[in-house]
Amino acid sequence: MHVKAIKMRWAVGGVNYCYLLSSEDKTKSWLIDPAEPLEVLPALSEEEMRSIVAVVNTHHHYDHSGGNVTLTTTLRKRHNNVKVIAGSDASFGVSVVPQHLDVFKLGNLEVVCIRTPCHTQDSICYYVKDSETAQNCLFSGDTLFSGGCGRFFEGSAVDMDVSLNLRLLEGIGERNWPLTKVYPGHEYSKGNAEFIRKFVYKNPGDNTSFDEFEKYCNTHEVTTGHFTVLDELKYNPFMRLEDPKIREAVGDKIGKWSRDKVMEKLRFMKNTM
Ligand SMILES: [Zn+2]
């Protein structure tokens, strides 16, 4: 498996990523969230462009799907069978809408579509397995960020809890959590670390996994693909709703709040930070 991260909209503060996911022999690729053709196309070699069999969206927001038409027009000059895979027809030019847990083959790779409605109703996380090299990865769009999660634009706190902490984790399977590298839609790790330090794990030593996460984020501009799903479970507050430190941070002094109330409050605190 090969993953190439392409920066988009960094100059305007969007800090988006487009990803080229390629099979081990590099003959088949998916181009995930290529929203900005002017930034994506120069980053691709002719060989890479010819390998692309699908333009894929994690959700319909313009900073993820806005390049579908230009990209497919450009790629279809190389070969005709370039699909557009997305969670709904709100994405331009969509030709395939996967159902929850639908599986695609991409050369030697297997991609499982995990539908995670909340940030948008059409959000999909793509979980990729390489049986040759035992590498696993997850393209999590705006559902899961390193140290955070997406805003609840089209869903509730319950929806995010179900999507993040049930559907996603079950879809990947516990034995794969330590092997699965996370590739989110944006580079938000540093800001997420600042939030966690300010409100949750306030002192070094409160959570040593978080201390390591924070250190890495403060010394690396690009963190995508570095952390695993198991890492996230150790410090991402939105995946640790039962942690007493999280309960304390949201104001649940005796640990009696429902999970969705904790999720809701965490999201509110992050939005208003
Ligand atoms: Zn979005």
Specify the number of helices. 10
Strand content: 15-25%
Side-by-side strand order of the widest sheet: 1-2-3-4-5
Overall number of strands: 12
Helix content: 25-40%
Gross CATH architecture: 4-Layer Sandwich
**Anisotropy-based shape:** globular
End-to-end distance, in Å? 38 Å
Number of domains: 1
Radius of gyration: 18 Å
Helix-strand sequence = EEEHHEHHEEEEEEEHEHHHHH
Low-confidence stretches: none
Largest sheet descriptor: 5 strands, mixed
Pick out its properties.
binds zinc ion, single chain, five-stranded mixed sheet, 12 strands, 273 residues, hydroxyacylglutathione hydrolase, 10 helices, RibonucZ/Hydroxyglut_hydro, Metallo-beta-lactamase, Chain A, alpha/beta
Write a structural description:
With 273 residues, the chain is an alpha/beta fold. The chain has one domain: Metallo-beta-lactamase, Chain A (4-Layer Sandwich). It is built from ten helices and twelve strands. The strands form three sheets. It has a five-stranded mixed β-sheet with strand order 1-2-3-4-5. The longest helix is centred in the middle third of the chain and has 16 residues. It is globular. The chain starts with a strand and ends with a helix. The model has no long low-confidence stretch (mean pLDDT 96). Zinc ion binds next to loops.
